[in-house]
Design a protein that fits this description.
The complex is a heterodimer of chains A (761) and B (169). Chain A has 761 residues and is an alpha+beta fold. Chain A is 27% helix and 25% strand. In chain A, strand 29 (612-622) and strand 30 form a beta hairpin. Chain A is globular. Chain B has 169 residues and is α+β, with helices and mostly antiparallel strands. In chain B, strands 2-1-5-3-4 form a five-stranded mixed β-sheet, sandwiched between helices. In chain B, strand 1 (4-10) and strand 2 form a beta hairpin. The chains are: A alpha+beta (761), B alpha+beta (169). The interface between A and B is large, with 57 and 55 residues.
Amino acid sequence: MSTGTRVAGQSLPRIDAPGKVTGSAVYAADFALPGMLYGKVFRSAEPHARLVRIDTARASAMPGVRAVITAADAADVRYGAAVKDEPVFAPDVVRYVGQPLAAVAAVTLEAAEAALAAIEAVYEPRPPVLDLAAALAPGAPLVHERWRAYTAIPILQRDGNVCNRARIVVGDVERGWVEADHVFEHRFTTAMVHQGYTEPRAAVAAWDSSGQVTVWSNTQLPFDVQATLADILAIAPSKVRIIVPGVGGGFGGKLRIGVEHFAALLARKSGRPVKVMTTSEEELTAAYPRQGTVIELKTGVTRDGRLTARQGRIYFDTGAFAGSGPGVASVATMVLAGPYRTPNLHLEGYAVYTNKTNCGSYRAPSGPQANFAVESQMDIIADALGIDPLELRLRNIVHEGDEGPTGQVLTAVGLEECLRRAADAIGWADRRPAPGRGKGLAIGWWTTTGGSSGVYVKINPDGSVTLNTGAVEIGTAALTGAAQVLAEELGVDLADITVISGDTASTPFDFGAQGSRTAFAVGNACRAAAAELQRKLFELAAAHLKTTEDALALRDKHVVGPGGRVSLAELARQSQVSGGGMIAHGTFIAPGTAYDTKRVEGHVYPAFHSPSFHAHAVDLSVDAETGEVTIHKYVVAQDVGFALNPIYIEGQIEGGVAQGLGQTLSEEIVYRDGRVLNANLTDYKMPTTLDVPRVESILVEHPGRVGPFGAKGVGEPPNVEPPAAVANAIAAAVGTRITSLPITAEKIVLAHSRDAAGGTH
Amino acid sequence: MAKIAITLTINGEPHEALIEPDRTLLDVLRTDLGLTGTKTNCLDAECGVCTVLIDGLAVNACLYLAVVAQGRAITTIEGLASSGDGRALAGALHPLQEAFVEHGAVQCGYCIPGMILSAKAYLDDHPRPTEAQVREALAGNLCRCTGYQKIVDAVLAAASRMASSAVAS
């Protein structure tokens, strides 16, 4: 896999593995302080109502209760990444079942739960907005009557229940329809799904006598939570210290403030440390799941299979607050374009308020939904034109130097190689090998999110190296990857490196564990730090070895010169005597990607930085009687640029596919009348060992220009294509096209029987 | 509820606790005894992160009363390397732990203690399992990171290592 590197590119065990297999690794959920209280949140029972009053007197008087707080105890602050519309506790209007109204802290969890049961809320129900159609209907009730008063990113296109409409316009789709021989129009829907991390969201907060609050949390973005919490507490950010001990999975669900504010407010009120941790019910009713969507897609194509135009609208049911919706709606338009050359585009993403839980970011936000529509329709078009789906894609995919939808110039495009290799690996030539058995393909592209990263790197007097980063390890092994880059550049071994991470008081800033960026950005910051360390080491070594700096090299944990060598340990010791230690600050900010600003509107993500390209291929059977899907083979070919640690990239692919298959086949947060019907892990069905097939990973390497050794972001992409790949294979197997997720066995059987009866669906 | 004194034998050591009789083993392990290697999540025996061994059987500690565990041998992840097999040295890893590290089977790691203990309980009775048997044995342990493939590979590799070392001794 690697040529010319010793550490980067090797499948080395992750540095935090021993602690994780022995149980000694401490996660936020494990964290405790002496004298700690347990906090619980009282939540709305109504989807939309005026909160007439909330009575906490009985709860406050119960044994063991040390604090009860409501909106009256929190500053009148609204927060949110794109639109500041969410209060800590609903002050007057409640907007979803599960919205926080109050919180209690007590000496035991049982006492806190008992106190919750003693809180009484009186509501005056209002007509709820239960789904996208209701929210977008003329004269629909407004989820936020005073939406105009909220602070928002200025470029957002907001209007009533729409908290952003992002748009890409290229050429003229009307001309494209004229040039087309056929125009295809389809509608797709996808369900709300949860990230499914196994560690609940958890936070322990404690105040000290200087007025600083320290919160041990499992957030993916400690610096973002620090800023939000400072706003909520109305104190300076430097008075808020966020420390991330360990994170038991996040997948985007732990980006934004989760329970940290409840812990901090309860700790302030009670004068004791407070721990708050969510239950499965809270996760499935009041977290940050992936938005359900409705997608309308219209595509024009010539009879020989050239795309002439595409018009797409994707509507995100983003729930009671904007959450990640405005950004996700923007990213979606990039995905709707697909990795295809289409001269005329009119693509819109709408983030829409409803009276449901606030949706957020989930691994490749918008990717699986938009890709499901695009890649399902490509197969429908291929079959209608009598062109092989692989061939149709090959005639339209982007290549090196092509333009992306907003005019960015695409480089390091490994898409054709991915597509051909995935198709070959699945035996594409025989697409329908037996009755009830079929194969499907889906391709896509994704971004490597930018943002800045800083690291402090210290060489210790024993020659070991400490990497201090504001990023956090959420499980992907991204910080092992970054450490491999550092080891490579410094000429040391991975085993020499210790990582300190995720503490807003003592680690340098990092944009956080999001957007497939951690190994990419922290790795590059490590390269910068290594270059600075080399300069300092050479300066000392030149004097020591009585030579000039340009005659020196870093090799095998030594600085080597013409007349001898000196160890890094010795130079670190010398530096402690003469210069305060051998330390460097490395930074990285991804360079901007040029695009055509005239093509976009309301768009907060107008270019895909260091984009990756990928193809998924699946071979499966469908049981004609039961509709049950059995996957025989699943192949992913992903252009990773450079595989920093192949075994963990395979792990990202295998895990991303497993999550994707859950969203495709079984997972759905089911709402009825504004209430979740399946808020437990018995009825919210995530894949087990018996549901996930073996996945074959093909790591394609077209090195990018920015990432360390050419690496591109790898974490999110494997989650993008599973719905479309599986839907296409099911259609090939049984001739029935399912256009809504999840594709349950029941749905297949019902649709198949309707098809057999000559109906449509 | 009146508290009662109990003694639990955990990883070969006696531990005393004064608890209400309706407390779960999971809660007592984590809250009273500070043994947080056993993880908490759904509290409904669906996810398996709380798996421990009781007299060698894998159980969900979230639905197991602590009082019932008295007089039984409780093994948690903290005791795995030194419990059983009679071969691990202090600080050394159990073959399952070694295999999980070597095969890239660990990502966020939160499910891993339960996963390893479920695997140990199964391998103790079925030293030469097939892949299908391993998948069946681990079906009660949810992992959201790995897609299970490298976990299954690690368990098969550990089984093979443990079986060959049993033959050798």
